[in-house]
Write a structure and sequence with these properties.
Elements (H helix, E strand, L loop, with lengths): L1 H19 L24 E4 L5 H6 L6 H10 L3 H4 L5 E3 L9 E2 L2 E2 L4 H12 L7 E5 L1 H8 L4 H6 L8 E4 L5 H8 L2 H25 L1
Length: 205
């Protein structure tokens, strides 16, 4: 594994440069393209999310908004741990801010997954756990299904996958209706991400 990680590092850096230069969707985006992602060939945790919001677009940092604060709260992780690309890869379904529709963010552009996703993930050999955050990531990986059922039955997807709702402001109402999320799911999530993070030292030594 260490040799594979080292071999992938150069290829991944080259591919990330391609992604950041992508302009395929420029004609359909409300703002200039700004692909936002975080990854390293050493990462043991992959966060598969929706698409950057307007604040992430402005900062160039994934989850640099209230949704990020909430996700880190769920994980009980500091920003320092969350943004350690040697441990955590963040690869959303769409890399650029898609704009808004019907009172919320628009769906991620489908071009990103088709053009880049498989190529990027193939260069992440150390990933042990993928957090499927929100419906778009879950549908892409698992196919059609109901978020609440998947999150409640998260053990069916372990040890490789962990489905989660999107950590937007709406999730607060959802949590109140589903108290088992805080009682059962979140403690398991925190244990799972720590286990995956702690495999890093073993996988690269």
């Amino acid at each position: 594994m260490p040799r594979e990680i080292d071999q992938n590092a150069g290829a991944l850096a080259s591919l990330i440069a391609e992604v950041r230069a992508c302009r395929v969707c420029a004609h359909a985006l409300p703002l200039d393209p700004r692909p936002i992602l975080q990854l390293s060939s050493k990462a043991t945790i992959l966060i598969a999310s929706q698409a950057p919001g307007s604040r992430a677009h402005a900062t160039g940092v994934p989850f640099s908004d209230e949704s990020g604060d909430r996700l880190r709260e769920w994980m009980q992780w500091s920003k320092e741990k969350f943004y350690d690309e040697g441990s955590v890869a963040i690869v959303p379904m769409g890399f650029c801010y898609p704009g808004r529709t019907n009172g919320g963010d628009a769906a991620p552009r489908q071009e990103c997954a088709r053009l880049w996703r498989h190529r990027l993930l193939s260069l992440l050999p150390a990933v042990r756990l993928t957090l499927l955050v929100g419906s778009y990531a879950q549908q892409h990986v698992l196919g059609p299904g109901l978020i609440t059922e998947r999150v409640r039955n998260f053990r069916d997807y372990l040890p490789d996958l962990f489905p989660l709702p999107h950590p937007s402001w709406r999730s607060r109402m959802w949590e109140r209706k589903n108290p088992w999320f805080g009682e059962d799911t979140l403690p398991a999530l925190r244990s799972a991400v720590e286990r995956a993070r702690n495999t890093q030292s073993r996988s690269i030594t």
